[in-house]
# Entry
Amino acid sequence: MRWLLPLFLLLWGCPPPTPVIGTPTDDDDFVLDDDDAADDDDAADDDDAADDDDAADDDDSADDDDSADDDDSAADDDSADDDDSADDDDSADDDDSADDDDSAVEACADAGLEAAFADPSSWTLQQACAFFFSKATAGNTERLAMSWELANVTLVQGDSYVVAWGGVTGLPNQAGGTLSVQQGTNLNNIDCNDAIVPGSEPVVGGQWEPVAGTATVTVDALQFGDSFDATVTISGVVVELDGSPGTTCPVPDTTWTSLWMGWLPG
# Structure
């Protein structure tokens, strides 16, 4: 047993082993900023919150969901249709256009009329005379007709005359007039002279009258007599079914050009 004494003395004089301290980049025992959390990667912006993914764009705010489309901006609601643009109000019908007021698009109460209005260029049957203008679908089953009360007006090239509905007043060169939308058969057979071809008499099954909007006729060029080349524009027109208050249909804004209107001499 005497050999144990020198070994004991030898060990008694040795210094304790030096502890190993790791580097800040990958050490999970680094004492300066290590909180020993299971998900701690020791990144500079790590707050060790339970939902922290340490992504480059993570602001670790209380409402941050770190989803793929989250830009962490103050107005971001992280909804599926949110494009985070400056004018986005994230409503269901928001198209994010610069002039979008997110108002609900008014629907037409009649599916057949709505389908016809989807393509105004398909309304190929046309008439124009005096201060009257009409268009009808190729099947002659829907017709839009309008007229302006300008019989005592001295026409001036470049002037425009407008009929308005919905209580609008005070417009330049505002005039009286009518507009109607009809559904039925043979509708455009009523010509400017009310001369109807026998056997092709129009049958009106439904008539709609305007409750809002304007119809404008512009004198583009005066011709011989009291005739003139014209442009007709309808804007913001909403029509209501006769006898059914509240049953409405919006009419697409449309412009027709190169119309021959007015009166011929004779």
Summary: Residues 111-263 form one domain.
